[in-house]
Amino acid sequence: MVLPGKSNGGAEVDGTSRRNFYVVAIYGLWGAISAALGLPALIYLLFPPKAKKGDEWIEVGDIGRLAPLSPVELTFRRTRVDGWKVISEKSTAWVVKGADNQVTAFGPQCTHLGCAYHWEEGKGQFLCPCHTSLFSSDGKVVAGPAPRPLDRYQTRLNGSKLLLGKLQEAPHPEKKS
Amino acid sequence: MRRRIRGVNDWVEHRTGIQSAVRQFLYEEIPASSGWHQVFGSVAMFLFMVQAFTGALLAFNYAPTPGDAYNSLRYILTELTGGRLMRGLHHWGASMIIVVVVLHMVQVFLYGAYKKPREATWMVGVVLLLVTLAYGLTGYLLPWDNRAYWGTVVTTQIAGQAPVLGPYLSRLLGGEGAIGVVTFARFYGLHVLLLPPATIFLIGLHVFLVRKHGVAPLPGDEVKPKKKFYPQQVFKDTVAIFIAFAILFMMAVAVRVPLEQLADPTDTSYIPRPEWYFLFLFQTLKLFSGPLEVVGSVVLPGVAVMLLILVPFIDRSQMVKVTRRIVALAFVLLAAIGWGGLTAAAVRSTPKEAAAAAVDYSGPTDWMQLSSEEMVGIAYFRKENCVSCHAIGDQGTALGPDLTKASIHKDAAWMIQHFKRPSAMRPGTSMPPIQLTDAQLNSLAAFLLKLNEKNATALDNAPDFAAQGALLYQANHCGACHMVNGMGMKIGPPLNGLSKRQSRSWVEDHFANPQKMAPGSIMPPYKLAPKDLENLTSYLFALPD
């Protein structure tokens, strides 16, 4: 906003101070209006929606015959709160039985830019086709631009049935050197 | 530092000329008589900007299709921080802008500011008024609740009545046949895509014309030195804008804008009413009937708009001194009285919201606390006309004992035996046996055991649909799976708060085919007669949260 500093000629002291009052009032009132509109608008846009009930555990399948170090992609349905909707959507997880018989379930998206990666049987690694990030079978970054290991689902076993919880970042993100 | 800022300013000025344009705008010369009476135009423009701002924010979280519209608006109101405020600002801003635009017109009219050479300014202004009303009309549908739906049904039907153009108009509005996705898309498109650019163009034209001809002077202005627009008049405009905004903000915070139930085309009990500023048209419509109806709905409003546009050509006198404009003053006064009278009549004729469908939570709610069993007891109490002999507190005849007195309450088994054969339990009583089954007598006993002096009013207050609904609830053994007011089983969801979770039509469809509405549900289908369905749903919807 451009504001001429001086009044337009011949202003007396009284006139100048009244003029100053006008200018200050104009700025002050518009400032108050802008704040009263702008702050709630920012809160409205930036605050997350009030929390819905937490994710439940979803049974994704029987992993009794899962071979060690040979990841399989399991598909399951889950309900998710999506804005004003609760949607039932298809989701997948890469499930690996590690050398120590620990079962890990990775989220299906590359940690670089969210592409879907897949298991390269020959290499024994996960490959993301977008920017050739490579991950080992325990989710660690082997090569490529991915900034952190693959995200993991919380897991729980019920006999040989695998249950998945929330998707979380891997516990110990490693810095690539 | 200061030199550098000036350097940047000079650079921008040289490339764009923005500074001299702003200066020219602010240092516009205005007549010496200008003052507080000329603030309304600025306030209206400010309110338009508030509407555009809050409207855009609402649109960020809004799905413009029927059904989803309702859910997303509820999401804005209940899940988002500040959502209720944004909707409140947009809702009350719409009403406020109408008030301010009308005040602006009245001021211009009284001061004769539409006279030569300002006829075009006035006519553009009238078009802006119509555009403002069009926002109100199209925005009314967007919440897609019962109010929105039924209000729009009436609107599109009226548009369809217009001579010659009617059928085309109603086809344009997508209102042919039934109100649905097409109507919704058209209204939304008008509201957010077509009207805003049209408004911006018209405001631009309007302001351009005001500037071209200058602010209308009063007699005597020609001999006084002119004033500058900035800062004195800008200050007055700003103060007026601030007051308007403060009122708007307080209303948005304090006055809750209701979101009614999801639009329900099968709801025959809903009584639609237009927004308050259209009530006078609604009432005018009622003055005409039969083939003359079109006079009230289309012809009269059309003529009024034409007259309004032609005002500068009807009043061709030179007089602009307000106190001498007797005819103009009288006209404004008559218009205000006419508008006020019609609006008041419309408000008076509007039935209380307690109509069958909507439950009036401001009225007595004692009966809502009763269990379904006790409510069934009320139904039998009424059916058997117990009050013909018994007193309930100070009501009814005192032939038999006052049933609110705890001292006469025995246990349920005794009471049932007593109902069946009164004389066996109380020798010498004149009470006749009650011809009901054991289960029915059980309900009656449950209610009477609950009855005391404090809750006796529930007997009078419980609406018929609640008693009938409770009878159906019991006859269909709903309580074997569901819970009402803490009584019943938990196999299905508790039914308190159902009205917050589902729409009426959803619940009614759900009775007929639960699996279709809620896949995986184990609830068996219930074929109910339409009247029963209505009573049962109303009863369930009336339960407290």
Description:
The complex is a heterodimer of chains A (177) and B (545). Helices cover 19% and strands 33% of the residues of chain A. By secondary structure, chain A is an alpha+beta fold. Chain A has two domains: 1-47; 58-168, Rieske Iron-sulfur Protein. Chain A is elongated and about 90 Å long. Chain B is mostly helical and 545 residues long. Chain B has helices at residues 2-16, 18-26, 40-59, 68-78, 83-110, 119-139, 146-161, 166-172, 181-213, 229-254, 279-287, 293-309, 311-314, 326-349, 372-383, 412-420, 422-425, 438-450, 457-461, 464-475, 498-501, 504-512, 514-517, 530-541; strands spanning 29-30, 227-228, 483-484, 487-488. In chain B, a hairpin with a 2-residue loop joins strand 3 (483-484) and strand 4. The longest helix of chain B has 33 residues, at 181-213. Chain B starts with a helix and ends with a helix. Chains A and B meet through helix 1 of A and helix 2, helix 3, helix 4, helix 5 and helix 10 of B.
Write the layout of secondary structure elements.
The complex is a heterodimer of chains A (177) and B (545).
Chain A: H1 13-46, E1 58-62, E2 72-82, E3 85-97, E4 103-106, E5 118-120, E6 125-127, E7 134-135, E8 141-143, E9 152-158, E10 161-168
Antiparallel strand pairs in A: 1-10, 2-3, 3-4, 5-6, 6-7, 7-8, 9-10
Chain B: H1 2-16, H2 18-26, E1 29-30, H3 40-59, H4 68-78, H5 83-110, H6 119-139, H7 146-161, H8 166-172, H9 181-213, E2 227-228, H10 229-254, H11 279-287, H12 293-309, H13 311-314, H14 326-349, H15 372-383, H16 412-420, H17 422-425, H18 438-450, H19 457-461, H20 464-475, E3 483-484, E4 487-488, H21 498-501, H22 504-512, H23 514-517, H24 530-541
Antiparallel strand pairs in B: 1-2, 3-4
Helix pairs in contact in B: 3-5, 3-10, 4-5, 5-6, 5-10, 6-9, 7-8, 11-12, 11-14, 15-18, 15-20, 16-18, 20-24, 22-24
